[in-house]
Design a protein that fits this description.
With 335 residues, the chain is α/β, with parallel strands linked by helices. It has 3 domains: 136 residues, Rossmann fold; 63 residues, Helicase, Ruva Protein, domain 3; 119 residues, Zinc Finger, Delta Prime, domain 3. It has 17 helices and 7 strands. It has a 5-stranded parallel sheet with strand order 2-3-4-1-5, with helices on both faces. Helix 1 runs parallel beside helix 2, helix 11 packs across helix 17 and helix 13 runs parallel beside helix 17. The chain is globular. The model has no long low-confidence stretch (mean pLDDT 88). It comes from Halorhodospira halochloris.
Amino acid sequence: MPETPEAFLRRLERQQALPPVCLIAGEEPLLQREASDAWREAARQSGFSEREVFDVDSNFDWGRLNEAAASMSIFGDRRLLELRMPNGKPGNAGSRAIQVYCSDPPDDALLLVTSNRLDKGARESAWVKAIEQAGVFVYCWPLPLDKMSQWVRQRLERAGLKPDSEAVELIVERAEGNLLAVDQAVERLLLLNGKGPVGADNAALSLADSARYSVDDLADAALNGDLPRAHRILEILEQEGTGQPLILWALARDIRAAARLSAGADDKILYQEKIFKRRSGLLKATARRQPTHTWHRLLRRCHEVDCAIKGVPGSNPQEALRALVSRLARAASRR
């Protein structure tokens, strides 16, 4: 069983000798980054001062890993070897190389393997089990929504801030499950407010970003039937360089959820689509005002926009997105 990041950090605090191999993977970038940074710092404090990084891609030569294990530092220093493997798929050659390394890790080196999401098969693969047997496997699962308030409060308090309940809930609502956004809010609060009490007004200021709109702002304007505002936000997003795939993703997510709600699905689908409380009321009200076939027709339009973005000849992705926003706003405005 993989360790949680919290258990891993506690291990580092109390353990003198570091395990020779560590795999840190998962689906929560902030937790992955902090666990990896903690391991690197623990390695540095233990005298592993030389660092060698390997970036794994489809052309990576896995012989380099075991060559590094067999070689000595030119300065005689102990080394931290870091294997960055974002897709978590070493292939047969990589799996064998990792297993060989783990069977007899060198005394003068530590190996840190980092990866993004690993599916169940990967988490139970031979190379992962070899790392677990030789060292430690840490997996950073997404934080459950019902744990978010507690996590935000602890994060603020660890930074020397004393938030009231309203401030915590405001940050939870605005962050919408994005731990990196919470981390940025904490940094801004420290900069703007210093350590000490934090109320909702302070929290709102730390989260404010009035110069920009988000893709959710665009979706909300369209769902409100406010076509001029929706077109204005779309133009600003395009001017700011927001990717067309991201804009389409947000619109398609809401349209897909609306189609399911209109067909009688319960509110659980909002959680599945990561549509948070702040937006759920608008989406439910709009979805149930229109027949299901209206939303299915809009979903087909989303597919057409996707094709345009991918470069289907004769299509214009900018015009296709604008037309989709118009159709969504008009559908939402019909009572």
